Amino acid sequence: TYCDWYIELTKTRLNGDNAEAKLAAENVLVYVLSGILNEQSLTEYSFECHPSPSAAELSTMQGKQQDLSGYIQLDATVRKWATPLATRLTPDGKTTYQTAQAIASYVRNSASYDTRTPRMPRDQKNFARWFLEESDTGYCVHFATAATVLLQAAGIPARFVTGYYAQVQEGETVSVYSDQSHAWAEYWLPGFGWTVLEATPPD
What is the model's pTM? Predict the structure, then answer.
């Protein structure tokens, strides 16, 4: 379920609960960021496709780290809980890419996918902890939140992203509907940039 290509949209993007868009591309998996104003009410989009580096290349990526301190800030209580777990999952010597993959694997295997997952009880304050330690099920929001928190606790700049997910085959145009909304984590990989981390298991 990992993105085979990294997509950069060249026009405005989906916005709105009932949004529909048509995407045409080569054989790619598409992650579409939401929340961008669609002032011209466009419903068809084109985008450029950039081949992603291999896993071996990603594991050795190096580059100047930008000031992304805002993407590793956690509530003190959350950090106190998350840091020991992130440290246990990511021993010294792992690259940023390897650390992210270890976190994704842990989160992905922590619960079963179920869109009927109940709300977090009102007496709970730490959503990621409740999901990883007490809930047996979750959906994309749960898995992406937990992954983002653990990445940040590991000192890796990360952000929680919502948007839409669609699989596009070469030479085809597909429609993307609101029920294809999705959430995922992205982390900053030095030498490459923001990188999708898919921690949600197949439904």
Answer: 0.74
